[in-house]
TrEMBL record:
<keyword id="KW-0032">Aminotransferase</keyword>
<keyword id="KW-0808">Transferase</keyword>
<dbReference type="InterPro" id="IPR049704">
    <property type="entry name" value="Aminotrans_3_PPA_site"/>
</dbReference>
<dbReference type="GO" id="GO:0030170">
    <property type="term" value="F:pyridoxal phosphate binding"/>
</dbReference>
<protein>
    <submittedName>
        <fullName>Aminotransferase class III-fold pyridoxal phosphate-dependent enzyme</fullName>
    </submittedName>
</protein>
<dbReference type="InterPro" id="IPR015421">
    <property type="entry name" value="PyrdxlP-dep_Trfase_major"/>
</dbReference>
<comment type="similarity">
    <text>Belongs to the class-III pyridoxal-phosphate-dependent aminotransferase family.</text>
</comment>
<dbReference type="InterPro" id="IPR015422">
    <property type="entry name" value="PyrdxlP-dep_Trfase_small"/>
</dbReference>
<dbReference type="InterPro" id="IPR015424">
    <property type="entry name" value="PyrdxlP-dep_Trfase"/>
</dbReference>
<dbReference type="InterPro" id="IPR005814">
    <property type="entry name" value="Aminotrans_3"/>
</dbReference>
<keyword id="KW-0663">Pyridoxal phosphate</keyword>
<dbReference type="GO" id="GO:0008483">
    <property type="term" value="F:transaminase activity"/>
</dbReference>
<dbReference type="Pfam" id="PF00202">
    <property type="entry name" value="Aminotran_3"/>
</dbReference>
Length: 428
């Protein structure tokens, strides 16, 4: 048919022009042309429920963000070496959401750059070379953080100065054992660095371990590992690119769940609601030392338009109580997913924190064997029913449920209803 032919044409064109390294989602690629709130629309006007996208954090094309962006773009945009109040207003407002100890911000355009900069700072201020990351981590596209991103699989060579520790898999380890297991893995990594004549510059992990499969419990389980790294002279870098900015519901930032303040936090995706805006937040003594040794210029990072956008996003989060919504609707959604687990053998575990949930599919609850192809079938079947989710976890067997923050209980009911039908259909 004509639609299929048109789609194939776009795919061919994409491959011819962009090369083979890119991947599209879903067996039938999705081609949205408009978005609003938690809904996306294709060229035929068909409506899709977005239960996946965290980048449009305050909702697709939020009018206040669009207005702020347009107004500043129509007034002035420059590189970042001139004076501008909006940038400082935004810095102040953003830093106010962090513990007092984290009182400096440096702006970038992407989470990758924020992590890359954090790596540079950690090296410069500790004088150490080693880094510790988790088994299925993703930290970005630059050469230095790609070699700290085991989730890239065979496509990447993990750096000789990088040690990879087991995911804090609460499902398989048992919640009560996560803290000890994680601490032990990290201690072994430190010992391995020592044997190679290195010390840790930092441990770097996603505050909710999203790519590893979303592991958030028990709160505080990172304590021993962080203490060990600090004892060995390294820093704690919290990657908040996915975890943070009101999504945790109970907190603004993912690390707050564990009650430990990082030395550096890196932010990205949701900050600009789609506009490329990211940042590194750090203790000022670290940046003093870094600044004494080197200088930093990022042409686009934290320009006036980005700052206006970032401010508007913070305003909307506040005015629409999106953090409270993440807590309430996230809890409601997680309960619904747990009820589904009670009815379906192949849902082995449901893990959630705020408006972020993972549903782990297994072929056998006793052995906890990952059921990746089943997970892929569910994601594609949902896409055919016009509901968008994704996958996470080392085996790609966890449904990743991560909607824009204005997701309502009605949206959750709609999602749960369709998921139940899809899952029920697969079981029979
Ligand atoms: N860290 C984490 C945890 C991420 O999920 C991502 C993006 N998927 C990045 C860093 C890199 O961010 P960006 O794509 O903006 O460079």
């Amino acid at each position: 048919n004509r639609d299929a032919a048109a789609q194939q044409h776009l795919l061919d064109r994409r491959k011819r022009l962009l090369g083979p390294a890119y991947r599209v989602l879903y067996d039938t690629p999705f081609h949205p042309i408009r978005g609003e709130g938690v809904r996306l629309y294709d060229a035929d006007g068909a409506e899709y429920l977005d239960v996946y996208n965290n980048v449009p954090s305050v909702g697709h094309c939020h009018p206040r963000v669009v207005e702020a962006l347009s107004r500043q773009a129509a007034t002035l945009n420059t590189h970042t070496r001139y004076l501008h109040e909006t940038v400082l207003d935004y810095a102040e407002r953003l830093l106010a959401t962090f513990p007092d100890a984290l009182s400096n911000v440096m702006f970038t355009c992407t989470g990758s750059e924020a992590n890359d900069l954090a790596v540079r700072v950690a090296r410069a201020v500790t004088g150490n070379q080693g880094f510790i990351v988790t088994a299925n981590a993703y930290h970005g596209v630059t050469a230095s953080v790609a070699e700290m991103s085991p989730s890239l699989g065979a496509a990447i060579r993990i750096g000789d100065h990088v040690r990879v520790v087991d995911s804090p898999d609460s499902y398989r380890l048992g919640t009560a054992n996560v803290a000890d297991a994680f601490t032990q893995s990290v201690q072994e990594a430190i010992d391995s660095l020592t044997r190679a004549g290195m010390k840790p510059a930092a441990i770097l992990f996603d505050s909710v371990f999203a790519a590893d499969g979303l592991f958030t419990d028990p709160p505080g389980f990172i304590d021993g590992a962080i203490a060990a790294v600090r004892e060995a002279g390294g820093l704690y870098i919290a990657d908040e690119v996915q975890a943070g900015l009101a999504r945790p519901g109970a907190h603004m930032w993912g690390f707050e769940r564990h009650g430990i303040v990082p030395d550096i936090a890196t932010l990205g995706k949701p900050m600009g609601n789609g506009h490329p805006l990211a940042a590194m937040i750090a203790r000022p003594d670290l940046l003093q030392d870094f600044g004494n040794k080197t200088r930093y210029f990022n042409t686009f990072g934290g320009n006036p338009v980005s700052a206006a956008v970032g401010l508007a996003v913070l305003d909307v989060i506040h005015d629409e109580n999106l953090m409270g919504n993440a807590l309430e609707v996230g809890g409601y959604l997680a309960n619904g997913l747990r009820e589904l687990m009670n009815r379906h053998e192949f849902i082995g575990d449901v893990r959630a924190a705020g408006l972020y949930a993972a549903v782990e599919l297994v072929s056998d609850r006793a052995t906890k064997t990952p059921a990746a192809s089943l997970a892929t079938r569910i994601v594609n079947a949902l896409r055919d029913r016009r509901v968008l989710i994704g996958l996470c976890g080392a085996h790609g067997n966890c449904l990743k449920v991560r909607p824009p923050l204005p997701f309502t209980k009605t949206d959750a009911d709609e999602f749960l209803g369709i998921l139940e039908e899809v899952v029920g259909g697969l079981a029979t």
